[in-house]
Design a protein that fits this description.
With 389 residues, the chain is an alpha/beta fold. It has 14 helices and 14 strands.
Length: 389
């Protein structure tokens, strides 16, 4: 099929030409005397994206999923008790990772499509009279359902309970796109990956650890080897890595940081909010429902759209891909077949999104779902025109 594939899954996202060019380079000696300039620059700038002046950044040749394991094994000891909220597929997998690594996990079950309840977290921590819970595990932006939770409220609940548990936050689909205030929210481990807000191919796991988290790294007794942050702390200090890094990805990350910081993180978040609102208005014009139960929690990076009863969201995705070269996100876990997702994060502007919305409209009609052609595009156009700077 001629033309470009329209990639509108919530990750991997579109890779800008600038980053592709930065990554297209010959390999080099990662132990040369010149190499530390690249490493130190990246590790010095990454905390700005996380919203911290106190945290230390780490980059591993891995993925966001691997950063779950990295955060867990570097902060906890075998058999430790943790509290986790499960409100979607990725929080479910975060729980699964903790359980597989030998943690005792107390799970707060939340309906998929709803946000984290800070009150439930506070209640659970207040009930922990022995202070046996060592960490709280949450997902900031639940990619499967298109729901963003209030991490500031989670921290406030933990403080109100006067509990010393660590706060581990999956920000894979939020960091680099949505507002993330690691210091202000008291996040001890912030977890990210390269393939979403950082606008890169998958392949880098990115982690930022606050002062309390860094102390936990010293005392955790989980077995660690490849993911041992103590090795990184030692070698990163001199501008190197404890093993061969992913050189091309590092150069891409350098370019991504230049782009994000030039735009300004507040402006990045505002851009995503404006673009996401256009998608939400299109969905309303189609008379379809978002998976997110509360409009105030709808994500600015991904919208999960519920298909009408009797329709198959997988058929919608298949038609979009085969007929219009448009990639839409799948429904995950129990949402498979019930929802499809439009990713709207990373390197993105209004016209790119309008193209995706036009393709989605045609697909919905082809799938027998009654929408009026042009309705969603017009609603998004009106919003983008009225809010253009």
């Amino acid at each position: 099929m001629s033309g470009r594939n329209f990639l509108f899954v919530p990750g991997p996202t579109n890779v800008p030409d600038r980053i592709l060019r930065a990554m297209h380079r010959a390999q080099e000696d990662h132990r040369s005397s010149a190499f530390p300039a690249l490493t130190k620059g990246i590790l010095g700038d990454l905390p700005k994206v996380f919203g911290t002046t106190k945290g230390q950044a780490f980059v591993l040749p891995a993925s966001g999923t691997a950063m779950w394991e990295t955060a867990i094994v570097n902060s906890l000891s075998p058999g430790d008790r943790v509290l986790a909220v499960r409100n979607g597929q990725f929080s479910h997998l975060f729980v699964d990772a903790a359980q597989r690594l030998g943690m005792q996990v107390d799970i707060i079950e939340v309906e998929w499509g709803a946000a984290i309840s800070a009150a439930q977290i506070q209640s659970a921590l207040e009930a922990d009279k022995a202070r046996a819970i060592k960490a709280v595990l949450v997902v900031h932006n639940e990619t499967a359902t298109g729901v963003t939770s209030d991490i500031a409220a989670v921290r406030a609940a933990m403080n109100a309970a006067k509990h010393a548990a660590l706060l581990l936050v999956d920000g894979v689909s939020s960091i680099g796109s949505l507002e993330f205030k690691m210091d202000a929210w008291g996040v001890d481990f912030g977890i990210a990956g390269s393939q979403k807000g950082f606008m890169m191919p998958a392949g880098l796991g990115i982690l930022c650890v606050g002062p309390k988290g860094l102390e936990a790294v010293k005392t955790a007794t989980c077995p660690r080897a490849f993911f041992d942050l103590r090795d990184h702390i030692t070698t990163n200090a001199t501008g190197y890595f404890p093993y061969t890094p992913s050189l091309a990805h590092l150069y891409g990350l350098r370019e991504a940081l230049d782009m994000l910081l030039a735009e300004g993180m507040a402006n990045v978040a505002a851009r995503h909010k404006r673009l996401g609102e256009g998608v939400r208005r299109a969905v309303a014009a189609w008379k379809l429902e978002a998976c997110a139960k509360d409009p105030s929690t709808q994500s600015d990076t991904v919208t999960a759209i519920v298909v009408p009863a009797g329709a198959d969201a997988e058929q919608v995705r298949d038609i979009a891909f085969k007929k219009y070269n448009l990639a839409l996100g799948a429904g995950l876990g129990p949402l498979r077949g019930r929802v499809f997702r439009i990713g709207h994060l990373g390197d993105l502007n209004e016209l790119m999104l309008l193209g995706a919305l036009a393709g989605t409209e045609m697909t919905l009609v082809d799938a027998g779902i009654p929408v009026t052609l042009g309705s969603g595009v017009a609603a998004a156009q009106a919003w983008y025109r009225s809010t253009a700077s």
